[in-house]
What does this fold into?
Amino acid sequence: MGNKSNANLQNRSARFCKTFPAGYYMTQMTKPQRIFAGQSVRALRERHGMKQAEMAQALAISVSYLSQIENDDRPLTAPILATLTRRFGMARDDIGGESSDARAEALMRAASDPIFADPLDEALASRAVRQLPHLAERFVALHRAYRHAGERLQMLDEALGAGTESAARLPWEEVRDWFHDAGNYIDKLDRAGEDLALRLATGAPSPGTAALERFACDHLGLGVADGDGRALRMIDRDCLVLDSAQPAETRRFQLAHQIVAQALEREIAEVVAGSGLSTQAARELLAVGLANYTAGALLMPYAAFRAAALEERHDIDRLTRRFAVSFEQACHRLSTLQRPDLRGLPFFFCRVDMAGNITKRHSATRLQFARFGGACPLWIVHEAVAIPDRILTQLAEMPDGVRYVSMAKGLVKPSGSFARPPRRYAVALGCEAEHAASFIYADGLDLAARTSATPIGTSCRICPRENCDQRAFPPGDRAIVVDRDRRGVVPYRIA
It folds into this structure.
């Protein structure tokens, strides 16, 4: 019985090996993915003014075969793809396939919006980009338009609330929105600042004050002296005068600002020239903002700062000591780590003054800030303004269901004189809850409990929450019902 079973097994193995020869599975594992690019091929043919018969002849295939390709009934083979690339200049990334990781990532990001019931599986996203690249692109574009429309609604509503028309933005608003549209990352200047840091740092994580002063003297002809508080930074003949009442981190940043403003003047001017800003005042403000941005890149070089941030789990206090920068400077730099080939954690960052005005803001997350006026009063940053030098943490949930872990700290900038009150404000930094493991400030927060998140919004006028005790205004797109015989926290109900 045993011999007969062994013989049957050997016969089956022989038939299997004949049907599936050695190397079959390795071939299957390494077999290139099928690429459906019918619309791209059709557009290419029409762009060259060719009929199907003419292109079919050029590709050495039949007209019916080409028709099937253009209708996405058949994929492109390697020889056809090579001919399209060689003879017609078709770029591989124009048709999806293995070089479309960015498209698949964009599709997954769009499909993970809480408006959809379930997120898109990675394999399904890759298959969609590979087989229906143009449909995937349209889906991403449609979602981008949807998000943009929401932002425009928010911008219009808050502009009306502030008595300002969006068509007549002030210069600082133009510059603020320019940085927002640029993703708060300017590659040319970031790399230039990093290169300069490598020249000056001599093995340290960041260039020291002495090295910066030597560079200013040797290359820019600038001496450095203490000032009496008339300005944080001022050029007096061939001397850079820095306010002696400011902390060492502030003085060092102002020194770095002046260095990059002069050493990288041409690079900054090129970015300003291509900005499209409408007024000279806006362009001048942008030049100042770009010098500040590049100063941050000089003091916190991209690759070194990103690596340190990941190592320290984005512990701001440890990063400030390692790079000799201020708390606010480190927070702001973390929000700029969006280099395409070396991204950092996607953060939002803002600075809020005592009146609740957002004076700095950027978001690499789905959270968007109020463009005018203040933010949601339930957000922890408002409490932090009143409690300087304490770090507060919060798990918050926006109306779209996305949860965010944030930290906020109140800061006080000295004025150097009893006659001038110090500047008081708070900074906030946060990320989506899915990144909590890499964000030290999420430790100790209950991320799983359904009721553990504080329900916040962007602005009362566009917040849909019906039962909010902190609501200042009713939502602009909903009617209200007033019952004179019943009073809640607010004197109306949202219909």
About this structure: Confidence is low (pLDDT under 50) at residues 4-32. The domain at 171-334 is CATH 1.10.10.2910 (Arc Repressor Mutant, subunit A).
